[in-house]
């Protein structure tokens, strides 16, 4: 009898496990991972490197060499994809004029031209999740726009990744809008990112986040370390445009490592671990590499969530270097330095996060927390528009990098976590869609009693 009961319990238990696992994964996400192709990425990187140089100030007239030929080809590829998905992509150039007064690394006045492809969301068309790579490349001297600069890894790899994600995701429909973009002028001062971030602000885009991909194809570090599973997710702790009041409040209520970009980074880390457990994502708690820049920053500057996704081991002999051999060392960012299988994996990381976020409901707004001098923490929030499954409260110990605990609380707008003391954890709330995809976690921005 007892034996039967324990067998039954075991069955129920394993049934629960199965159900739980089943509920947390979406088969379409595995399908997306399978569809991302190293061959396709390789072909695009070879094509981009073949334009000789893609320096932002290089030739714009030639059809075979320079930034003009490169951006026209990228646009034609997006146009081709759009034709194959019943015109699902809105493809256009977004451009800004820069002059030599705009910076010290500008050899002459020029248009900085980004190529943008937007796949409109069916339910929340004004919400945008963006994936970016860069069109431009550079030689040893940034001002030199004539010398060959294939920029195979920096950053044809990120550009090819964004094109590949467009190829795969344009076969699906999403509730929120998905944007694939090639940015220019990165090497001379992040001009393309500034231009698009400004354009987004002027057009009142509600940006879920930008996944900026800059160098996603190198697996051999300059120190000889070879690693094709680890990659880095850079995110700044809190937005730079926060108010004095927000900074003051943080001293009392916390949130030093819980800004919107950090939550986006945690989301990418979690989705990767769920669907691609063979990968080793590293959360890097900084805006970018030490003293260096990337195209997510102009978005962060305007208060948008944005992270940089990139390889773990950089090879400085293959970055920003004229192609040459010196003392037996080969320099130059050539195609031979790119590992296409690794670029495929990081591209898939982007694709599954873009899809999850675009299938998820909007994150709850006005999340507030209470429970001061009480035994239980309380949370409340504004319900999101649309028919959703409900909300999930997350919490973690104050020294933990990732959310450790969570509880799905149903379709309500407040909840009390019995026996969980507010002082000992950080808390956040996410919205959960009908097909289980979740929004980014929102850290409380207010306190109630
Ligand atoms: Zn660079």
TrEMBL record:
Q: What is its main location?
A: secreted
- Where are its TM segments located? none
Any one Gene Ontology molecular-function term assigned to this protein's record: metalloexopeptidase activity
Compartment list: Secreted
Q: Which organism is it from?
A: Salegentibacter holothuriorum
What residue range is the signal peptide?
A: 1-23
Q: Where is the Fibronectin type-III domain?
A: 363-449
Write down the Pfam families for this protein, in alphabetical order: Peptidase_M28
User: This chain belongs to which protein, by name?
Assistant: Fibronectin type III domain-containing protein
Its GO CC terms are: extracellular region
Which example biological process does GO assign this protein?
Answer: proteolysis
Sorted keywords for this record are: Hydrolase, Metalloprotease, Protease, Secreted, Signal
Kindly give the CDD domains that the UniProt entry links to this protein. FN3 (cd00063)
């Amino acid at each position: 009898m007892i034996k039967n009961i324990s067998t039954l319990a075991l069955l129920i238990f394993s049934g629960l496990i199965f159900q739980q696992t089943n509920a947390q994964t979406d088969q379409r996400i595995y399908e997306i991972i399978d569809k991302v192709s190293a061959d396709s990425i390789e072909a695009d990187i070879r094509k981009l490197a073949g334009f000789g140089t893609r320096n932002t100030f290089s030739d714009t007239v030639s059809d075979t060499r320079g930034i003009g030929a490169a951006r026209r080809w990228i646009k034609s590829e997006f146009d081709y994809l759009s034709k194959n998905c019943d015109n699902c992509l809105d493809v256009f150039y977004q451009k800004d004029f820069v002059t030599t007064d705009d910076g010290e690394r500008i050899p002459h006045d020029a248009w900085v031209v980004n190529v943008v492809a937007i796949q409109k969301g069916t339910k929340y068309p004004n919400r945008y999740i963006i994936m970016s790579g860069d069109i431009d490349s550079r030689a040893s001297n940034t001002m030199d726009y004539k010398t060959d600069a294939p920029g195979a890894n920096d950053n044809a790899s990120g550009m090819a990744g964004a094109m590949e994600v467009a190829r795969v995701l344009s076969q699906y429909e999403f509730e929120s809008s998905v944007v694939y973009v090639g940015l220019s002028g990165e090497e001379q001062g992040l001009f393309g990112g500034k231009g698009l971030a400004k354009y987004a602000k002027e057009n009142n885009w509600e940006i879920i986040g930008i996944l900026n991909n800059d160098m996603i194809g190198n697996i051999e570090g300059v120190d000889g370390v070879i690693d094709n599973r680890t990659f880095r997710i850079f995110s700044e702790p809190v937005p730079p445009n926060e108010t004095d009041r927000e900074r003051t409040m943080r001293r009392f209520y916390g949130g030093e490592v819980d800004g919107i970009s950090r939550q986006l980074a945690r989301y990418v880390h979690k989705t990767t671990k769920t669907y691609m457990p063979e990968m080793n994502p590293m959360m890097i708690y900084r805006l970018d590499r030490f003293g260096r820049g990337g195209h997510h920053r102009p978005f962060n500057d305007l208060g948008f969530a944005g992270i940089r996704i990139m390889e773990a081991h950089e090879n400085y002999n293959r970055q920003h270097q004229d192609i040459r051999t010196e003392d037996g060392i080969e320099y130059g960012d050539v195609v031979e330095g790119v590992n296409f299988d690794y670029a495929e994996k990081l591209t898939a990381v982007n694709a599954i996060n873009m899809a999850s976020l675009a299938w998820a409901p909007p994150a709850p707004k006005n999340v507030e927390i209470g429970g001061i001098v009480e035994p239980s923490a309380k949370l409340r929030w504004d319900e999101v528009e649309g028919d959703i499954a409900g909300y999930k409260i997350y919490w973690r110990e104050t020294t933990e990098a990732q959310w450790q605990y969570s509880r799905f609380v149903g379709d309500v707008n407040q909840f009390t976590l019995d026996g969980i003391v507010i002082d000992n954890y950080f808390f956040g709330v996410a919205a959960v869609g009908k097909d289980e995809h979740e929004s980014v976690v929102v850290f409380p921005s207010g306190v109630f009693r």
